[in-house]
Amino acid sequence: MAEITAQMVKELRESTGAGMMDCKNALKDTDGDFEKAVQLLREKGLGKAEKKADRLAAEGLVSVKVSDDFKIATVSEINSETDFVAKNEQFISLTKDTTNHIQTKNIQDIEELYSSEIDGVKFEEYLKSQIATIGENLVVRRLATLKAGANGVVNGYIHTNGRVGVIVAASCDSEATVSKCSEFLKHLCMHIAAMKPSYLSYQDLDMEFVENEYKALVAELEKDNEERRRLKDPNKPEHKIPKFASRKQLNESVLKEAEENIKAELKAQGKPEKIWHNIIPGKMNSFIADNSQLDSRLTLMGQFYVMDDKKTIEQIIAEKEKEFNGSIKIVDFIRFEVGEGLEKKTEDFAAEVAAQMS
């Protein structure tokens, strides 16, 4: 069995918010596997659905460049050592110039970027000269570009703090629709920046992942129900425990059974059968919403739109298709946030004090 250290328990506690002994026991039960311990705690309703990356940090800026014809969108992240330098005008110019260079030269990865030429010199040498002038180590961490195909369109958004950038690509039925939807894509990028979807659609979810997340969702709701019963707040009724977590699980037989249950319910209520067709669609929509909570948390198409929280992105796009008299399909999106997934350098408190005094 792997040795369970105090540092391992500390990290798990910080990541999940669970109690110290719960974290220690979870690590013991999973033989020290961090991710399995997180999942075990969540299935017991003891851990929050936080990613380890959410509590990590690094400094720097994200930059976005969208071509004038809305056919190419590029996003990059350059890390610096301090937030102070991230506000430096020269550093800000560097990030914009680099992103423009990536797009203009059609650069696909970091290795290609560093070996490319900018202003007559190798990019690697150009960056070194910037480092010497700015006075901090700077690293181009990642980059990505989306291109519009035939009848396609892209757009992007950079948040005012420069720490979050998003690009998105869509395919339309015609250039006429393309010309109408670029502004909508900008708003969609703003939604993605705020709501942090991890997937485009429920169709991108792995079934094993969905089933594991369902266990965690049920545990989370049951835990919250215990608190609601304790508080007895009439404005906070207990959560209804869903049978499913995602539309990935709602196959034809599940939906047919749900519809039959609704019909039986309407019959028991004495509702005339001739009006059932007016009631069933709304009840089916409610059933799907109740049983696809994972989609609304993780998938772009399943999330409720920040500018109209009564409708999902999928519903908003359907409305836009009617408004523009054409079809719109979101093909891909990329969201960068400064420092996500980067480990902070950690030192114990005594070493930190000693380092400051030396």
From TrEMBL:
NCBIfam families named in the record: tsf
Protein's UniProt name: Elongation factor Ts
Residue ranges annotated for the Translation elongation factor EFTs/EF1B dimerisation domain, each copy included: 73-239, 242-340
Annotated stretches, region: Involved in Mg(2+) ion dislocation from EF-Tu: 82-85
The family this protein is said to belong to: Belongs to the EF-Ts family.
Function: Associates with the EF-Tu.GDP complex and induces the exchange of GDP to GTP. It remains bound to the aminoacyl-tRNA.EF-Tu.GTP complex up to the GTP hydrolysis stage on the ribosome.
Keyword annotations from UniProtKB, A to Z: Cytoplasm, Elongation factor, Protein biosynthesis
InterPro entries: EF-Ts_dimer_sf, Transl_elong_EFTs/EF1B, Transl_elong_EFTs/EF1B_dimer, Transl_elong_Ts_CS, UBA-like_sf
Source species: Campylobacter insulaenigrae
Gene responsible for this protein: tsf
Source organism, top-level taxon: Bacteria
